[in-house]
Amino acid sequence: MTTTIIWTIVILAALGLVLSLILFFVAKKFKVEEDPRIDEVEKVMPGANCGGCGFAGCRAFADAAVKAPNLDNNYCPVGGNDVMKKVAAILGYEMKEKAPMVAVVRCNGTCENRPRTNIYDGVKSCKVKAALYSGDTGCAYGCVGCGDCVAACQFGAISMDPATGLPVVDENKCTACGACSKACPKHVIEIRNKGPRNMRMYVSCINKDKGPVAKKACAAACIGCGICAKTCTHDAITVQDNVAYIDFGKCKLCRECEAMCPTGAIHGINFPKPLDKDAVKARIAERKRKAKEAEDAAKAAAAAAETNKEEA
Fold first, then answer.
1. Mean pLDDT: which of 6-10, 26-30, 39-43 is highest?
2. Domains of the chain
């Protein structure tokens, strides 16, 4: 009996040694050498692991950046241009600076503008609430107000305003990581350009219903009338699916669209002076008057030229 136990132990020990040697040689044979620059890049990253760059975390971003031929498709929104300059220096790449971005809540559905039609008494989760039904109001597109975006933000940049029932973004804390935008089941939060001196314009509505339906649900909804698009001289506004959208890359911050919007769905942020709608409307009217005079003069000149040609 004792001999059997001894031999069992010896055989198991020998087998364990052989398998260990096999695993050692296999590990050496198939060992993947990791670029040391990955560690260097990871060290300069902010360490938020928020996923705003499109990768699972800072380590995954560092790995992708090292393997990429350039940094055109890799950018850390939390670290911004300062961090990306350090990454570029480590990798010997050229870095193109990007304009700072910020989260924008595109919903005008305050408690005053969007009256409740029912009361939700369930799990306090936007995702759950949106999955069950369209919301507490007649608007099926707006914020449902449970604060999933607040919970998703790692930087304390979003809070719920009890007076309006809508999330409020602190642009000084916002890193534009996009976590809040991904957490919102209604997609009312957009990551947009901060704009020069933090001034920006945007349509605070994503309601795709036709004008009368949208207006009935929310007093400040975009009704898709197209007045803003017709007013804009920079081709910065388009109207699609009954809702307007401002291209921040084309917008010149003239605020004419804001002045002309009949429902107040267009918002101008951080401008030094309040909007003087009457003055802006007067400017637009004067521009149209001059354009009409120029058009009439051109038609008259063309008619005169045609008459002279016939007489000749």
1. 39-43
2. 37-91 (1.10.15.40), 100-192 (3.30.70.20), 195-293 (3.30.70.20)
